Amino acid sequence: MKIVEKFKALPDKIRAIPKKLSDKLAGAKEILTQGNGKVTASMLVMGLGQLIYKQWVKGAMFAFIQIAFIVYFVLTGATDLFGFFTLGTREGNAWYGVEGDNSVVRLIMGILAIMIIVLYAAIYVSNVKDVYRTQCAMDTLKKPADFKQEAAALLDKSFHKTALALPVIGVCVFSILPIVFMILIAFTNYGGDIVPPALVDWVGFANFGKILSLGQFAPTFFKIFGWNMLWAVLATALNYFAGLGLALLLNKKCVKGKAIWRAFPILAYAIPGFITLLGFKFMFSYGGPINYYIQQGGGEAVGFLGLDAKWSARFIGLAVNAWISIPSTMLLATGILSNVNTDLYEAARVDGASSWKQFIKITLPYVLFATTPVLISQFIGNFNNFGIFYFLRGGLYADGYFLASDTDLLINWLYNMSIDNNYYSIGAAISLVIFVITSIISLTVYVLSPSYKQEETFR
Amino acid sequence: MNKANVKVVKAKTKRVLNVLITYCILILVAFIFFFPCLWLILASFSKSGSIYSFDGFFPAQYGFDAFKSLFTDTVMYNYPRWFANTLFIAVMSCILGTLLTILTAYCMSRFRFKSRKAMMKATLLLGMFPSFMGTIAVYLIMTQFNLINQHWGLILIYSAQAPMGYMVQKGFFDTIPYSIDEAARIDGASNFTVFVKFILPLSKPMLVYTALTSFTWPWSDFILPKMLLIDKDLYTVAVGLMSLGETEFARFAAGSIFIAIPIIVLYFCLVKYMINGMAAGAVKE
User: Which of A32, B7, B53, B168 is most buried, with most CB under 10 Å away?
Assistant: First the structure.
């Protein structure tokens, strides 16, 4: 991906839009003007034209889809679509036994209805196009494909349509719909006292104004953001270089029994993360072994992860995160190092380059080049590392913060606010801000990275 | 002693020192990674469950009580049941998720259709959202579909979200030469046949890698099951172990070992595939 060039090419693309649109319009116009009665029949009733052409199965299928859609639309679709804009009109009241509208469910079902309508429109268009194709084939005295051939094409020419149907539906419902929902929630007043049965309303950009202006949110946001950035940079750098170092160490010629040495980090990698995190929490707890030895030595038990702990908890977090993440970086680096061209090292040795120089000039550029995308995703993963402080400390609320503590990252703050304290809309607005920040950072890093700048160096 | 001799001795000591330092670091690394594991294993054999009864890292008395109570004392904490639940969810999600991911990756790699570029960009962008905010929506959808407190609900979510991570697999399919497809197509094979008969057998490492990652995710996930499962008998191990306190430390340790062992065995058997898979996915963007 060449992002900068993409941006440079943007004006051209915008200029190309009218042409693309007019091409599309020309196609539609052709069907409208050249289409015969059967095409019109299919426009009025899906599948009718196909039935007239005696394509029974296909026609029946299109007709069935239309009937199903109409039934859906009459039964729930129309109200769902309407509910998307109003977010419910009837407030529930348990006292009078009135079952009101659940605004949040209205919103979700509204999004779902829009998705279904878009899908239906796509099928409708393909229905018209299909009958027009049949007409063209008939006009040129070719035999249109019969049902058997078309079914066979689903496993051949249009195999991708068959194969992608299920994944696309799944991703739409369980990945895209939730994200759209979250984005839209940022523009409502959902949260606080306004949770169902109370009615939620659209409020525009008010939530973003609140984050910046309201005394509660802004100071906490900037404090946490500073720590979050520091954390992401430190954690990513530590994991990356330690993992690379470990891979290089294990790659050394003098190391015997590589498989055994490698087994220890892999052991750490294989243990499910929550076990590791809870285990370390026990280790540093008041009654844990570390404090036991401190007390044996005559000291006072230290609350490493307690409410007042700031830097100790942060360092423990960093170390535990390293313990969990270094092995995967090591495995990745091992795989990549095995692909380095060994001739380069041979040549370097002949020229008398020291091993440090070989590392700086050959290994590092190559590994950086190959792993930049991974590095970026690791950075984002660390930036949004929810589990680490959730398990190590849980939902602590420290002084000077609004529903957060010294170690909390933005994502933990989000969790505290939205899941534990009902500040849904503010939480959604903040997660949008996080999204913008992370995507800007990762794009910038990517553009500055060697794998972007010198795409051809190692090919 | 002449100069050349000194030089040889110097180089030799340098090399020995180098080896010595290397092994010192290796031993240290092995210790750092192994010790917490050893601690958990020891803890699971402690006679008393509470962490307060330990002498530092070591239990005061050893015994099999924790394992016994883990499998017999099931009134409060039904560990065998949790284990079966987790296994069921993970295996089903693994099968479905792998299938969907592989299909998606294959289509993205081999077919050039209209919305392909748009779909690839969209998945890249969507991956940057802090995803758990969406879980509120997932929860609401599940209530609408009446799938709360049911394992199939979880399986549906895990397998439906799996194709989002198709990039690694696509990178792998990109490395399989097109000439294989073309040769088969000339012989009259359909795209489906090419995929099943030629591409799949070649992608064994990637299949294993995908299956492994889509197995471990539900195996150790906690946010979704914690939100969607209400009955204690339906819990997965992750949720169940989280509900144990400091006084149940030995039970926690014993339960952790049983949940960690299958994954560890799988990883050690498949570590070669893992390394290849990760490298293949990384180099190709």
Answer: B168
Residue-level length of chain B: 285
Cross-chain Cβ contact B141/A174 below 8 Å: yes
**A10/B contact by beta carbon, under 8 A:** no
Nearest to residue B104, comparing CAs of B156, B177, B164? B164
Sign of CA dihedral A218, A223, A229, A235: negative
Model confidence pLDDT, tens digit, residues B47-75: 876 777 777 777 777 888 888 888 887 77
Using a CB-CB cut-off of 8 Å, the residues of chain B touching A174 are: 138, 141, 156-157, 160-161
Buried b (16+ CB within 10 A) or exposed e, B216-255: bbbbbbbbbbebbbeeeebbbbbbbbbebebebbbbbbbb
The pair of three-digit structure tokens given for residue A446, joined into one six-digit string: 């990517």
Q: Which of A326, A414, A317 is nearest to A378 (CA)?
A: A326
Q: What is the pLDDT of residue A41?
A: 84
Count other Cβ atoms within 10 Å, centred on residue B146: 9
- B57 three-class SS: coil
How far apart CA B256 and CA B143 sit, in angstroms, is: 31
Which of A101, A107, A159, A379 would you mutate first to test chain B, the one with the most B CBs within 10 A? A159
**DSSP state letters, B124-158:** HHHTTS-GGGHHHHHHHHHHHTT-TT-HHHHHHHH
Q: Do A384 and B130 touch (CB under 8 A)?
A: yes
Instruction: Determine whether the interchain pair B220/A273 forms a contact, defined as Cβ–Cβ distance below 8 Å.
Output: yes
Q: Is pLDDT of B285 > 50?
A: no
Closest alpha carbon to A432 in A418, A421, A444, A420? A418
> What span, in angstroms and rounded, lies between the C-alpha atoms of A189 and A203?
6
What are the mean pLDDT values of chain A's consecutive 10-residue runs (459 residues total)? 57 74 81 81 85 86 91 89 82 70 86 92 89 85 76 82 89 89 88 78 85 78 90 93 90 81 85 85 82 82 76 90 90 80 82 84 81 80 86 79 83 84 84 84 73 53
A352 at B interface, C-beta within 8 A:
no
Is residue B26 pLDDT above 80, yes or no? yes
Tell me the C-alpha distance between B250 and A258, whole Å. 33
Q: What is the pLDDT of residue B279?
A: 65
φ, ψ for residue A402 (rounded to 5)? -100, 105
A355 contact partners, CB below 8 Å, separation of at least 6: none
Phi, psi (deg, nearest 5) at residue A386: -80, -45
Does A265 sit behind a cis peptide bond, omega within 30 degrees of 0 on the bond before it?
Answer: no
Interchain pair A266, B267: CB under 8 A = yes
Give the whole-angstrom CA distance, residue A353 versus residue A356. 8
